[in-house]
Amino acid sequence: MNCSALLSLMLMLVQLWPCSPNMQNHSTQNTDQSFTAVHRVKRGWVWEPLFATEEQTSMVPVYVGQLKSDLDKQDGNLKYLLTGEGAGNIFIIDENNGKIYVKEKLDREKKPFYILRAQAINKNTQLPVEPESEFIIKVRDINDHEPQFLDGPYMATVPEMSPEGTSVTQVTATDGDDPSYGNSARLLYSLIQGQPYFSVEPKTGVIRMASQMDRETKDQYLVIIQAKDMVGQAGAFSATATVTINLSDINDNPPKFQQRLYYMNVSEEAPVGTTVGKVFAEDSDIGENAAMNYFIEGDSSDAFDIITNNETQEGIILLKKRVDYESKRRYSIEAKVVNRYIDDRFLEEGPFEDKTIVKINVEDADEPPVFTLDNYVMEIAEGAMSGSLVGVVTARDPDDDDCPVRYSIVHGMHLKRLFSINEHNGTIITTKPLDREIASWHNITVTATETRNPEKISEVNVYIQVLDVNDHAPEFPRYYETFVCENAVSGQLIQSISAVDQDDSAEGHRFYFSLAQEGTNNSHFIVKDNKDNTAGIFTAKSGFRRQEQFSFYLPILILDNGIPPLTSTNTLTITVCDCDTKVNTFYCRYGAFMYSMGLSTEALVAILACILILLVFFLAIVAIRQQRKKSSFSDKMEEFRENIVRYDDEGGGEEDTEAFDISALRTHTVMRTHKPRKKVTTEIHSLYRQSLQVGPDSAIFRQFISEKLEEANTDPSAPPYDSLQTYAFEGTGSLAGSLSSLGSNMSDADQSYDYLTDWGPQFKQLAGMYTSHRSVGD
């Protein structure tokens, strides 16, 4: 019969469970029994579960259970074997009867179960009578661990005055025992310290408020929580944790002034913005709940203000406007303080504000004089004679002694030249006539100084307006350039005019235009007033002749509407122009200029022709001089070119058919026989191949160089005509050697070019040229 066995040590018992389905069902139906019965299965194992306690401390092996085969005849022929985890050292078996013992201490927290195998064999044949069966021994737990608070100590915060039952925080303890069996890991929480303010839920560890608490009374509480396993039964383990609970602030307290009445003083000469004093209200709350604002009530004079110092929460009373001891000596104001942030939940307990009375006394001081007005505006007509009255300023000492004052004008010497003031009574007069067209307003500053205390000074601004008087006659706004054509017809408009007046007019300027008395007999032009401060100049006849009269001077009378009215005579110059009906301004200006110079057109043409001839003559002279300079420079350039030898052949390519011809150094031009400073007596004629024989060691070459050197030394003003040609050697190691013809000291006949054939196909054509040349020479 194939069967597996399951030996299970459950919680505080060690139970042996077979793996067969029949055995499983049978054993399941009897799990609630005392396990003293022997359960049998036909031709199978027999399991007899017994109890064993975890962490058995006895040195004697403890009986766990028994394995028994139904084939066991109790005749001693069967032998039981045990293998697997812990077999032999932790678990042993009696091979004769199958009883299993544990001989070492077991710890469920280290190893909760063991897997073993059992087998029954015949002692005589050593053959198994039952197949090997595997089973599991589970270690049953005992209460051997204490609870632990792993997250302690705890910190928590809860708002003050929170209602009863408000959750504060939760504490949690852990137990290392098996929570699935018994009560070893079942914890129960209780409050050791913290009543009657807090409570804890026994099963969850949630701490709750047990009553309302005021932070201002006490802001921190230390609570001790205990956790017990075994549901608090006798013999249970326990642990404790501390919870520090802080009460956070809420705005449940109104501000309160420290005093019901404050006394303060302020000097009457204190400037606006001066700090008069401070008030302070206390608030038991903290942070923003203690923030407050101060206000002033009951101050009908509006002389004081109050601001809040957000750092110190003080109310600072400031002077809002100047106070006067002589006018009012005492002030009584009401200051109010209100919380800035109010919790609506506590409004029913009363307003979150407070009030106090502040009495302020004004202290007397020696004040400077006071003018009757903040500023003065005066008027005077322009042109008024020196010493005319402008106005009067008045100041007095506000103090009880009423000290006399002295007046003066400041801020600008030019104002003193225009105005003066009586230092005793403040009368302002002019020192010279005023012109409104120069300045229509004058601003002066008048000071009043106490005679007994010169340090007490007051100032006031005086604005003086110069009233306009019609003292300027109207005039043309600009110079009019007027032309009339010779062929102009009668009644033709030739010019529109207007007028300006420097005076002011309350009703607006009105100008009237007409011919002056001296021009009324002039029948050539008429003036027509347009009734809009403009007028038109019209011709009174047809046809004008420049030869008879080139210009006309028309006097025009302009009248304004001032009181009294003023007139002026303005002359309009009219120039006759050589035109038909349409005036060409440029041409007319030109004609007027010529007429003023007394020149005719023919004379002007003659003058221009003379100027043109002189200009052409001057340019011709300049051109001739430039040509001469250019010719001289060309000769020098020729001399320069006499000694320039072009040698731009890199040394014998495929196109090389000529070598350097040194005869170029001995040409007629080089010798310059026409120059007196030349001493060359012979000429050198050399053909192409002959030049190859001329070298530095040649007498002819040395003679040529000597002549050039002597010529340069004897004529220091001439540029150097000697020519320097450098032909560098190709370098050591070159198979070709030097290609310079100047460096050759032998002729083609002495030169062998057979080596050119060894240079490769690139020099094939060159080798052919020199080889054939040598053959022809030979």
TrEMBL record:
SMART domains assigned to the protein according to its UniProt record, in alphabetical order: CA
Transmembrane segments: 603-624
SUPFAM superfamilies named among the record's database cross-references: Cadherin-like (SSF49313)
Domain Cadherin: 69-149, 150-257, 258-371, 372-476, 476-586
Gene3D superfamilies listed in its UniProt record: Cadherins (2.60.40.60), TCF3-CBD (Catenin binding domain) (4.10.900.10)
Main location: membrane
Subcellular location: Cell membrane
Alphabetical UniProt keywords: Calcium, Cell adhesion, Cell membrane, Cleavage on pair of basic residues, Glycoprotein, Membrane, Metal-binding, Repeat, Signal, Transmembrane, Transmembrane helix
Molecular-function annotations in GO: beta-catenin binding; cadherin binding; calcium ion binding
InterPro entries the UniProt entry points to: Cadherin (IPR039808), Cadherin-like_dom (IPR002126), Cadherin-like_sf (IPR015919), Cadherin_CS (IPR020894), Cadherin_Y-type_LIR (IPR000233), Catenin-bd_sf (IPR027397)
Signal peptide (residue range): 1-21
Entry membrane topology: Single-pass type I membrane protein
GO terms under cellular component: adherens junction; catenin complex
One GO biological process term: homophilic cell adhesion via plasma membrane adhesion molecules
Function, as annotated: Cadherins are calcium-dependent cell adhesion proteins.
The protein's name in its UniProt record: Cadherin 19
Organism: Athene cunicularia (Burrowing owl)
